[in-house]
Amino acid sequence: MSENRQFLYRYRHLNGQHRDWTKRIFTESVLRFANPSTFNDPFDCKVHYLSSFSVEELRRQHLDRIKRRMPDLNRKQRRAKVTQDIGAMEPKKFLRQVTDGLQNAVNGVGVLSLSATDRNILLWSHYAEGHTGLCLKFLATDQTPFFGRALPVNYVTSYPEIPITSPADKQIEAFLLTKAIDWRYEEEYRIIDHDHGAGDKAFPAELLVGVILGARMTPNDKTAVVEWVSKRECHMEVLEASVASGSFSLEIRPYEG
């Protein structure tokens, strides 16, 4: 994370089962990590390699791995193993198999999406159900547990050029943290869970420091959210967004009830 980053935000709405999921953030201090295969952008987290690569380089890389992992093999056995694994394989078929294998690995991680901004009207429209939902405010610095793991998404005009011979974990991270330039308004950060995949993860309760009520949130929903806040042991501020007069922007002030 950037050293000057202090807060990160997550937009939520209260419709259907999302209401219970959002409530649990307040009452149980848990956040739901998503499976990348469920993302709304069909290009997001998709593994893509350049079609040109050196088979000889692959052989050298694989030989080095075999030396480290199978030290009991002699030179002739190591070379036979390389030929068995790579040498007889048609390059395009090999590339397809590697791509499919890494895509399965990418789809097996869990991802929590956050934003560096709480005032983007498109984010409020898309992820807070037309400003009827809310925006959560989390403390997030380089020293903060949990949210300190958040990494910025890179926005580019073409697929990243990832060497097929680079370490698998680095490849996974590169594909997970690269999106089309069209999405740059989201100012997205992601926390990636390689070990446990998708699902609910507990976060330190004191790191949820605020909530912003949407400009079109109903009075009943405001009452419900304030009640959830009142049951928390850790203090957090309650704010409210409103449509600014004379400009395409939001004003955020303390909620007065």
Q: Would you write up a description of this structure?
A:
The chain is of the alpha+beta class. The chain folds into two domains: 7-44 and 110-254, no CATH class; 55-106, no CATH class. The chain contains seven helices and twelve strands. The strands form four sheets. Strands 1-4-10-11-12 form a five-stranded mixed sheet, with helices on both faces. A three-stranded antiparallel sheet has the order 3-8-5, with no helix packed on it. Strands 2-9 form a two-stranded antiparallel sheet. Strand 10 (208-213), helix 7 (219-230) and strand 11 form a beta-alpha-beta unit. Helix 2 crosses helix 3 (75-87) and helix 4 (91-107) packs across helix 6. The chain is elongated and about 80 Å long. The protein starts with 6 loop residues before the first strand and ends with a strand. The model has no long low-confidence stretch (mean pLDDT 88).
List keywords for this structure.
five-stranded mixed sheet, three-stranded antiparallel sheet, alpha+beta, 32% helix, 7 helices, 2 domains, 12 strands, 257 residues
Task: Spell the H/E element sequence.
Answer: EHEHHHEHEEEHEEEEHEE
What would the average pLDDT be, to the nearest integer? 88
Radius of gyration: 23 Å
Annotation field: number of helices: 7
Report how far the terminal alpha carbons are from each other.
35 Å
The 3D shape can be described as: elongated
Q: Helix fraction?
A: 25-40%
Low-confidence stretches: none
Total strands: the figure is 12
Q: Which strand order does the major sheet show?
A: 1-4-10-11-12
Structural class: alpha+beta
> Can you summarize the main beta sheet?
5 strands, mixed
How many structural domains are formed by the residues? Answer: 2
The portion of residues forming beta strands comes to 15-25%
